[in-house]
Amino acid sequence: MSLQISIPDSILQALRLPEKRIEQELLHELAVALYCQELLSFGKARELAQMDKYEFGRLLAQRDVVRHYSSEELEDDLAYARRQ
């Protein structure tokens, strides 16, 4: 399933961003907003933002967004650390 969102030209022009950056910036904004509302997990939000986990983590830090850290993520991190 795929979704396209129509944004009026007047809004796109008001963004004051270079045309090449508009889509990526809007994806970042949407990903952060959905993550903040706990509508997307960290992994899915970073996928939407088209960023790796370190880049997305930095973006959240820049926005002073506290990272949601579930017990499942803790288990994944511990399992990863044990393999090291």
Automatic annotation (TrEMBL):
<protein>
    <submittedName>
        <fullName>Uncharacterized protein</fullName>
    </submittedName>
</protein>
<dbReference type="InterPro" id="IPR005368">
    <property type="entry name" value="UPF0175"/>
</dbReference>
<dbReference type="Pfam" id="PF03683">
    <property type="entry name" value="UPF0175"/>
</dbReference>
<comment type="similarity">
    <text>Belongs to the UPF0175 family.</text>
</comment>
<dbReference type="InterPro" id="IPR052264">
    <property type="entry name" value="UPF0175_domain"/>
</dbReference>
